[in-house]
Amino acid sequence: MPMLTLKHRLLLLIFSVTLGVLLLAGFMSNLSLLNYHRYKAQQMIENSFEIVALDYIRLREELQHEARLLDDDINLEASLNLINIYEDRNNYKSILFDEEKLSIGARLLTAVQTGRSDQAYLFDQGSRLVAAASLWEKSWDRLYQSYQQGQAEIKSTATQPFSQEKSQEFQASLYLLEERLEVLRSSLSNGLYLIDESLQLLYRHSLNFEKETPDGHLIMLRHLDETVFSNLITAPLKYQLRTEGQTVISTMNRDLELERQLSLLQKEGQGSTAIYRTEQGFYGMRELFNDTLEPVTLVLKYPNDLYLESRNKTLKALMLAMLASAILALPLALWFLVRQVTQPIQGLVQGVKELREGKYQVAMNESSRDELGVLAQEFNSMAAEIRNREQRLERANRDLARLSEAMAHHFQEPSRRLVAYASYLENAFETGSQSDMSTAVGFIGQQARHLHLLVNKVQQYLAFQRESPALQPVALNMALETALQHSLLNATEVDVEIAPALPAVEADPEYLHEALVAVMNNAYTYRVEQRPLMIRITALRHADKVTLRVCDNGMGISLADREAVFELFTRLTPAVNAEAGTGMGLANVRQSFYQMQGEVHVEEGIEGGVCIAMSLKAASDFQDANAQGANAAVQ
């Protein structure tokens, strides 16, 4: 199986994360839409419940008002009193009583036409029908009850004769009302009833109810059909009215899950104000009319189609977003990866290869400010460190090679002279010449001291290669004062001026002490006899570096030879003291500063003299530096 590159893995990761985010966004959007439509359904359903309840109360009040208006009608009262007192079913005077009943029916019809009721029935003291008016029936609008030979007979004022079938249907409905009035005379309450399989609001009013025995009973009816509820319950809600376990009015499709929930609530004998959700939508149910003999449950439905439509739109938008991501985002992500990740990493890999091949001048682009930029900076620092170490190794190898070559000459010459003067001394002993013996002993001592000094310098140089310096904060003023006391300048009158309050540096106290003594001795050795020796010592801090300058007015060094003076066994000009100097002083100074991660070079001095510039890292803790300053002295 081929290995996936980092670029492909990152691209796959971005694609997976993008897909995951889109899917999560889809899930969260769907959840938000579901909660939104649930909340919207709850608000609309609760508002509709309130509207229906308020309209029901208002309708009852209007039916009551219409009944009281009829109760206050003097003519109606007189006609009803006449019927109650003088009507005899066996000896019925149709000429008299039918006319009265027709006038009563006309008054009832007027009340129905001008009010909100659509039916009105008037019964006498014996709960017998007197007259009725209706806007509900198509075959009649007024009717009254007459008698023939003691038998009740329904008569209508319709233009067409009242058919026998219609008369029987209407008579059955009257019998139902009369039976209910007789059975529930003492306990009948106003409210909703299922009459002739139609839900109707009934208001029963006793005429002249202040009397012990009312003159009669007036019943006002209002059919509650689909038109009434459609005006109250606005779209998109659907509704259903249920009573006695059956549906009376419904604009919904059948929902078995909802029916099970309704049956469960009815068995438990409790209503519910919660919002239910089925596959068809959100439902709310409530028993609105709790003053009725037969409970009526109103069920409202918020169609699920609205939620599904919003969800489908959201899914389409997400699909378009995924397509846009595939067309736009992924190529941009690929371009970003190649430019910001892959190319820098490939550059680092190439840099590592070049570094492994010994090409230490490699440098990475550090313009990026992210983790790769930090990695590039660290890589460049590592390459610079390796380059510096390689240069030190090359310099050390070169110096060692030069040392091995030069030692054959510089050690052989003092040895040869020692052998020659030893032979000269033997001859002087044989001849007994005191002068020759004194000369030979003097030369032998001089060469022995020179050889001893040379051996010490070589040992010091080799020690720099083997040992690592112990860097610590060192106060320059105290280190310079101590070095001055141990140098050749201390025994003579020299104009030495050290600037006050010099900054502290990170250095090995012993290494720094030896280097400062060597520089001061070098200034004394190569002074100009014709003028007093003058030395000025200053230090300047720049960023995290401190450059210490020891300047004199001595013989000076030409620009071309300012690097050569740091080579082993190099003496460009004769010293004032013939015995002084081994050619290794400044070489050891540079070597010690290299070990302390510093630098040394030659600059123009005072009046053509020499200025030795030595750079070291600045110390971060000046108090520690002052405390360590005294350690610069060599024990």
Give the amount of beta strand, in percent.
15-25%
Q: Which CATH-level-2 architecture of the domain at 467-632?
A: 2-Layer Sandwich
Mean pLDDT: 77
Please give the count of helices.
Answer: 13
**Looking at the structure, what is the overall shape?**
rod-shaped
CATH homolog superfamily of the domain at 467-632: Histidine kinase-like ATPase, C-terminal domain
Name the structural class.
Answer: alpha+beta
- Biggest sheet layout: 7 strands, antiparallel
Report how far apart the termini are: 70 Å
Summarize the structure.
The chain has 635 residues and is α+β, with helices and mostly antiparallel strands. It is built from 13 helices and 19 strands.
Structure report:
The protein is α+β, with helices and mostly antiparallel strands and 635 residues long. Among the domains are: 107 residues, Helix Hairpins, CATH 1.10.287; 166 residues, Heat Shock Protein 90, CATH 3.30.565.10. 52% of the residues lie in helices and 19% in strands. The chain is built from 13 helices and 19 strands. The strands form 4 sheets. The chain has a 7-stranded antiparallel sheet with strand order 4-3-2-1-7-6-5, with helices on both faces. Strands 9-8-12-11-10 form a 5-stranded antiparallel sheet, with helices on both faces. β8 and β9 form a beta hairpin. α7 runs parallel beside α8, α8 runs antiparallel to α9 and α9 packs parallel to α12. The radius of gyration is 62 Å and the shape is rod-shaped. GO terms for molecular function: phosphorelay response regulator activity; protein histidine kinase activity; protein kinase activator activity. Keywords: Coiled coil, Kinase, Membrane, Phosphoprotein, Transferase, Transmembrane, Transmembrane helix.
